[in-house]
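Table S2 (continued). Query chain:
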Amino acid sequence: MFSIFKNYPGLLCAFSEKKDGSMKFPRNNPVLLEKNLRNRKKFLRTFGIFPEDVSSGELVHGNQVRRVLTKNKGVRFKDADGLITGRKNIFLSVTAADCLPIFLFEPKKEIVGLVHAGWRSLEMNILENAIGKMEDLGGTPENILAGIGPAICQKHYEVGPEVAEKFVKYPEAIGNGNNKIFLDIKKVAEMQLLSLGVSGKNIEISSACTFELPKKYFSARRDKPQEIEAMMAAIGIKE
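Corresponding output:
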């Protein structure tokens, strides 16, 4: 999916599409949960991955990043929007339906990370937490490769002045038009990664906008569904 990852044959980096079905973990809807679990299983099997080898963040739009160990294989972390691991054959996953899926890989130490980030998580410095945990495992920011996946683009991401105020130090990410304010979360993520020591040549940003591609991606802002439908991002190293 990203050219920066193409020279690492053991690395899996995947992002589902609308045709694969919703991958979200719905709360209080066991019938829908069972359906979405079947969607996840089918999608993962196309890569030769079993669900029991996948650890997931259930997402709370916060800044918690959890380190995944062998004993955590298959665990769903209820409070995590980010995951990292230095173990092979452990695959990380988050879901997204306008928010950013951010794929992280430190090739020298073979550390992978995956972050789900909307404006709240970015404002709470989830990327700083993720990079910090990769450093704790021996990773070096300048070696980290970062792929910023499909997400809502700036022209469809209207925010209020109280949200824009939180990102005034990223003026390139704030746009105005027709008395409205628009935020570019891909640009915010890029600038935060650069400030954390990730090299610009190691950052690749998908141009795909989830809002603008209704046949390809779910979009919470566009569809306004009663029950959110979402894509699944996954990353891991096959041994």
